[in-house]
Amino acid sequence: MKQLLILLCFSQVALAQQVKFTSPLDTSLWKPEIAPKENSRVYTSKGKLIMDTKGGVTVWLNKELRGNFTIEYRRTVLVAGGVNDRLSDLNMFWMAQEPGFRRHGVLEEYDSLQLYYIGMGGNTNSTTRFRKYEGTGERRLIGEYTDSAHLLQANHTYTIRIVVKDGTTSFYADGVRYFEYADPHPLRKGYFGFRSTWSRQIISDFKIYQ
């Protein structure tokens, strides 16, 4: 597949700004939802997005994505003595239906949405799970790993890739396919969001390919 770097309706200038995560954070392009906890914040530094949070956090891309596409980016869970450092929860939502950007980062607030969800190294780095939220409160489990090969390494920069193509969605970390799901009732449009809780993480080099 010929991969052309695009951001759907955004211009190339806007795309370059997004990839670099300009300072301060462009809140027209990115919509942070963060639990009201002490010592929690979302900010940018040196072209990277930092989520440094005691509670839950979601940072949405404010653009509905449609059709076939690939999302790719780099992400590190830091464990270096920071107040919120914890090896857990390299998570993300995609194809979320009408998120509204009015929540406060608490995971249960998203139960009313239809979406796909990866929780990589969740539950204090004991599980990696792929779920489909049905919009009814059901978080349907599609697949799960508990072995160390599919859990997180501290301070390792992962290349994350999500592929949506013709009703099938796949998740890769460092080129290894963890999950692939041919959904009989696929979500064909929706929003992408970085998701985590109680951790410090760095995100960079965000791209979307058509």
Automatic annotation (TrEMBL):
Gene3D superfamilies, per database record: 2.60.120.200
Keyword list, A-Z: Signal, Transferase
Annotated signal sequence range: 1-16
GO molecular function terms listed in the Swiss-Prot or TrEMBL record: transferase activity
Tree of life domain: Bacteria
Presence of keyword S-adenosyl-L-methionine: no
Coiled coil: none
Transit peptide found in the keyword field: no
InterPro entries: DUF6250
Domain DUF6250: start-end pairs: 52-206
Protein name per Swiss-Prot or TrEMBL: DUF6250 domain-containing protein
Organism: Chitinophaga sancti
Native organism taxonomy: Bacteria, Pseudomonadati, Bacteroidota, Chitinophagia, Chitinophagales
